[in-house]
């Protein structure tokens, strides 16, 4: 017989006692020697409870193996009542083990668990012939039901217990799983934190040498300046850095700088060091005026000392320029001064120089150096645009703006556009500068026109750009890329841009004009053949130069020239823009003459794209305002 799960259910002592009492009563009533509850397992039939009546041969706990023709096994197997009145007269039962105990009469009923697996039997046995009348059969049936009811309760209890255990196991398993997840999560958080720290380190440091990078160093300087803390800024230039890098490679030079840095920290533990570029580092120290020369002396000693690389000795050659922080000196001014001092130091052949000049000092930089910086700025995206609003003098609404290039250099400060553009035109960087200005302006304007559909941004175009045979195609691609309608773009060209190659310039500007881009003649009046150009080229706008406006209040010649220019422009149906208007008198004069647009500090200086957007947004939300961003 297959082992069922119910076979492991234990019958409590209290119930066993009940069954025992019940069997005693049953045997007594039926006047038989044995009343039994039998329990079956896969191999045996066990006397589970046995009445304590006289002549009962069955002993509690006795087990008889199955398959030897036991009455009870038959009852369980057939799941049915069995009555044997006299086994001695019945060939089927006369050799059964029960008959050999002299129990020749039998009446038994099966007992089942609620899941229909067998428990055993309840039965009466007699040592003489017995047909077990209906009354006893009924009595036995009642006992069977009562026992099965108790089995049912035990079964449910056992199920509950099993479920409870399963639940406990599940909870333990889940707890284990949660613990594993927690550990994994903690590991992940740790490794992420480590990665973040690494990123943070990379963000602030020159990875090859461990020096702070310029951004982090400038941030530190700004903090000191903003909290009025005194410090000394030392600019250390390694004159032979290029040579070392060429002969031994960049990584070796980085290694030398790392060694240099560790020597540095031994002599000034309060310093902050940063690497400016491949040959220059900056040091911020908090040293007294008296002690500074001694410190610089030490620094130059380690700056000239020998460093070892694979048994080879390499010397660094350093120059040091120092400057004390001063009230009101900006970071840019301090950097510029330290830089100039180190250049001076090198020119004079000294090892260190402390600046005693007042800030800011005039730059003595060669064009060659500025060129180098400009190249870096273009490649590093250090340039940006500012935007000067173009205003309708009658409604004061911002109708458009002019995009103007800006470049703030840490050493050189703000560089004037005139110097910048001329330089870039000479060395060919104007293509990159021009493309940068065009792309940034087109991208920016494509956002503004979503709110202000008629807003026009003007971009300055250099003579060199106009010579580029792919210029029209390039602009077309930009407009498509940023989805900007051509009518929202204006190009400002100067007469100098037109002289170079007239035929090409006319062709290029005509194509652009036909695309719907507005063409403006900039700085009108400053060239010498201005009026002729107005007929030849497809201009839409004329910009009267600031130099005519500067003295317009007091100079009647300028007044006459401006009036004449406005008149001619009107006759040629050109829009007139006046630039450089700084006061109300100038505004009154030119608006009386009927100019269309005014651009000047009176309304706003060139401002950031965010500020321009803010002004535009306010203008469209409250009607016709009069904004000033000064
Ligand atoms: P511009 O095209 O004549 O630009 C107007 C210049 O006058 C701007 O100087 C502007 O800031 C200044 N300005 C405007 N209103 C006033 C005013 O009321 N008072 C005074 N004092 N100045 C005023 P900025 O930005 O220095 O530009 C100088 C020149 O650099 C520009 O002269 C333009 O020729 C050139 N430039 C600027 N950006 C670019 C560019 O992206 N590409 C090219 N090729 N040239 C550019
Ligand atoms: Ca311009
Ligand atoms: Ca101009």
Automatic annotation (TrEMBL):
Q: Which domain of life is it from?
A: Bacteria
Task: Return the PANTHER family for the record.
Answer: CYCLIC DI-GMP PHOSPHODIESTERASE PDEF, OXYGEN SENSOR PROTEIN DOSP
Looking up Gene3D superfamilies in the UniProt record yields: 3.30.450.40, 3.30.70.270, EAL domain (3.20.20.450)
UniProt KW Coiled coil keyword: yes
What is the official name of this protein in its record? Sensor domain-containing phosphodiesterase
ATP-binding in keyword set: no
**UniProt entry keywords in alphabetical sequence:** Coiled coil
């Amino acid at each position: 017989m297959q082992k069922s799960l119910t076979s492991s259910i234990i019958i409590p002592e209290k119930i066993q006692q009940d069954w025992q009492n019940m069997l005693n009563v049953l045997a007594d009533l039926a006047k038989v020697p044995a009343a039994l509850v039998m329990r079956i397992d896969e191999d045996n039939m066990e006397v589970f409870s046995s009445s304590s009546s006289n002549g009962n041969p069955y002993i509690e706990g006795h087990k008889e193996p199955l398959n030897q023709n036991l009455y009870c096994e038959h009852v369980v197997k057939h799941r049915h009542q069995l009555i044997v009145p006299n086994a001695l007269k019945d060939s089927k039962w006369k050799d059964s083990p029960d008959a050999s105990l002299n129990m020749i009469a039998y009446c038994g009923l099966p007992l089942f668990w609620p899941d229909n697996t067998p428990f055993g039997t309840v039965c009466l046995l007699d040592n003489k012939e017995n047909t077990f009348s209906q009354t006893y059969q009924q009595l036995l049936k009642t006992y069977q039901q009562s026992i099965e009811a108790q089995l049912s309760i035990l079964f449910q209890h056992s199920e509950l217990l099993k479920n409870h255990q399963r639940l406990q196991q599940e909870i333990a398993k889940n707890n284990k799983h949660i613990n594993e997840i927690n550990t994994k999560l903690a590991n992940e958080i740790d490794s992420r934190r480590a990665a973040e720290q690494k990123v943070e380190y990379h963000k602030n440091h020159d990875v090859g040498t461990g020096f702070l990078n310029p951004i982090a160093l400038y941030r530190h300087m700004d903090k000191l300046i903003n909290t009025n803390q005194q410090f000394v800024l030392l600019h250390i230039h390694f004159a032979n850095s290029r040579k070392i890098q060429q002969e031994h490679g960049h990584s070796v030079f980085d290694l030398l700088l790392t060694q240099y840095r560790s020597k540095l920290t031994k002599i000034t533990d309060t310093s902050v060091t940063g690497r400016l570029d491949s040959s220059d580092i900056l040091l911020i120290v908090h040293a007294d005026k008296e002690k500074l020369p001694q410190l610089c002396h030490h620094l130059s000693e380690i700056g000239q000392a020998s460093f070892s690389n694979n048994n080879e000795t390499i010397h660094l050659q350093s120059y040091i320029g120092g400057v004390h922080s001063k009230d009101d000196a900006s970071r840019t001014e301090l950097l510029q001064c330290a830089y100039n001092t180190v250049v001076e130091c090198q020119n004079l052949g000294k090892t260190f120089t402390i600046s005693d000049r007042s800030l800011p000092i005039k730059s003595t930089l060669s064009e060659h150096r500025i060129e180098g910086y400009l190249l870096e700025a273009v490649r590093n995206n250090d340039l940006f645009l500012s935007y000067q609003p173009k205003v309708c003098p009658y409604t004061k609404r911002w109708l458009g703006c002019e995009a103007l290039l800006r470049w703030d250099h840490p050493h050189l400060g703000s560089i004037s556009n005139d110097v910048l553009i001329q330089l870039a035109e000479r060395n060919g960087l104007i293509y990159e500068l021009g493309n940068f200005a065009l792309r940034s302006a087109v991208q920016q304007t494509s956002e503004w026109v979503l709110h202000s559909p008629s807003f026009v941004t003007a971009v300055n175009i250099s003579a060199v750009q106009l010579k580029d045979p792919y210029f029209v195609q390039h602009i077309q691609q930009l407009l498509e890329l940023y989805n900007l309608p051509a009518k929202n773009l204006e190009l400002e060209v100067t007469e100098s841009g037109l002289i170079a190659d007239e035929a090409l310039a006319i062709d290029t500007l005509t194509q652009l004009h036909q695309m719907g881009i507005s063409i403006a003649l900039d700085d009108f009046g400053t060239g010498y053949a201005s009026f002729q150009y107005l007929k030849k080229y497809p201009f839409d706008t004329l910009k009267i130069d600031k130099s005519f406006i500067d003295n317009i209040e007091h100079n009647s010649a300028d007044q006459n020239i401006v009036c004449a220019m406005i008149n001619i422009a009107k006759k040629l149906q050109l829009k007139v823009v006046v630039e450089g208007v700084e006061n109300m008198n100038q505004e009154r004069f030119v608006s009386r003459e009927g100019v269309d647009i005014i651009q000047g500090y009176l309304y706003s200086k060139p401002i950031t794209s965010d500020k321009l957007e803010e002004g535009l947004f306010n203008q469209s939300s409250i009607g016709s305002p009069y904004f000033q961003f000064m």
